[in-house]
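Q: Please design a sequence for this.
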């Protein structure tokens, strides 16, 4: 492991106060302690799986003009690796979503804060996301995008926490299924920190 990573984590960690994400509270001290213990997926494991996903997608969209839509910010690193591993051409665009209030069974608190900039009507669209958790974000986005009449609409997620679903949602391509643990790195954040880490780490409550 790169020795500079724990040092950077330690410095960042000092600015990290107690907070909560998706109703889960984290205390000072845990990030650094757990970073030393637990890498969930190393960069080489990630690379191998991303290539496998890209191969499946390349096969499925052979001869088509694929439009890839990434969900900011979490998906940007995964998407960058994924599209560079494809054996077919694609165009890219991005959408950004925000959710307000505590996440309940309703998806009404989710809004699009940055929309895609081109029409998807009649296009073959692949939405790329870092992780599906409750399913609220992706089911909301998929429903909004379907109203715009794409030819096909599929979803590729890097990680899937099946057991946390509040609404039924199945991605078409899944990198890894994981247990109910909070993960950071490879684009995923905790209070905007740790997106830069090249591996996936677990941080505990
Ligand atoms: P959902 O609407 O609950 O499926 O929310 C998915 C979003 O929650 C993701 O795009 C992430 O921003 C965030 N999220 C859920 N679990 C994690 C995690 O373990 N680490 C980092 N972000 C997460
Ligand atoms: Mg996200």
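A: Design:
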């Amino acid at each position: 492991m790169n020795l500079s990573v724990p040092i950077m984590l330690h410095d960042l960690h000092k600015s990290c106060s107690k907070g909560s994400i998706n109703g889960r509270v984290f205390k000072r001290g845990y990030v650094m302690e757990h970073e030393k213990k637990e890498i969930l997926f190393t960069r080489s494991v990630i690379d191998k799986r991303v290539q496998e996903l890209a191969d499946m997608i390349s096969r499925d969209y052979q001869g088509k003009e694929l439009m890839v839509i990434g969900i900011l910010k979490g998906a940007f690193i995964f998407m960058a690796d994924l599209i560079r591993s494809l054996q077919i051409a694609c165009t890219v665009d991005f959408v950004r979503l925000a959710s307000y209030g505590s996440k309940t069974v309703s998806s009404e608190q989710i809004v699009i804060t940055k929309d895609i900039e081109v029409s998807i009507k009649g296009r073959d669209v692949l939405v790329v996301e870092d992780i599906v958790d409750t399913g609220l974000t992706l089911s909301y986005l998929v429903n909004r995008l379907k109203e715009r009449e794409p030819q096909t609409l599929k979803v590729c997620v890097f990680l899937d926490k099946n057991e946390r679903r509040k609404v039924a949602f199945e991605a078409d391509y899944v990198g890894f299924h994981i247990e109910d643990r909070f993960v950071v790195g490879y684009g995923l954040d905790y209070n905007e920190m740790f997106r830069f880490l090249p591996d996936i780490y677990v941080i505990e409550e």
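Q: Thanks. Anything notable?
A: The longest strand covers residues 90-99. The chain is about 30% helix and 30% strand.
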